[in-house]
Amino acid sequence: MGVWRVLMDLRQLSYFVVVAEEGQVTRAAARVSVAQPAVSAQIRHLERELGETLFHRDPRGVSLTAAGEALLPHARAALAAAERGRATIMSLRGMLHGRLRIGVSRPVDPRLAEALGEFHRAHPAIEIALAEQHNEPLLEALTDGEIDAALIGIHDQSLPAQIRIRNVGTEPLVLATTRAHPLANRKSITVAQLRDEPIITLTRGSGLRAVLDDACRNAGFAARITAETSELGSLVELTSAGLGVAVLPRSALGQADLAILQITRPRLHRRTALAWNQASTTPAGRAFLTLAVKHFSAAR
What is the distance between the alpha carbons of residues 8 and 82, in angstroms, rounded to a whole number? Predict the structure, then answer.
């Protein structure tokens, strides 16, 4: 097959990734501001070079074949590596260009927002992209080099060798109930006493859910989950509606009219950390990390 034309391949791979993410060539073409026939032609060219069909095609859109699924992570890694190389060369000239990709869990931490604001003022040529996900997807994206840094919740999980973290905050977790709940008059509760309580929590993959599951498992039972949501705000609303009790950070409750119990034996905490991949952080990522560490340290 010989050596591939590098510029053409990067364009083909970028179109391939966008089509895979959009699930439709028309939307992918609009996203990259290129005519649909040109995108389709490049995808067919890539398929001919690889000798494999990458997409199942039907009138509703496209989906990845087994070959496409196998290629996708490598295509993303190749594009990320090319962008890091370009950014590194530009940094040698004293210029920071390109994109800063930061992973966050909602709601966005005000300290992170302030750091991003200062970074933008210092480096206006850099585009800032936020990826909003739970912990596990963010760690996967860091490991694969798809984002430069992330603000994640840390519990007792093991981390990939190339991932580095800096703890930036610890907050106690509390139990929230409606004021009509039988537990509402109590001041505290142990984890073991939650055995029979219907619990509302975040979906799997979040740091808060991991802390809850680990605590209940260590106490000898599985949490009785009655409802799941992906956002802390929704968790508070569901608790207020009486669907169950919730384990969450005190700061998430705001002005909600709920009873709050301290959790003891053991005390539970949410630990927040700034995480990055030491093997793939771009110059923009390194510049942001330096600034973010200062912001988080000053806010303690």
Answer: 13
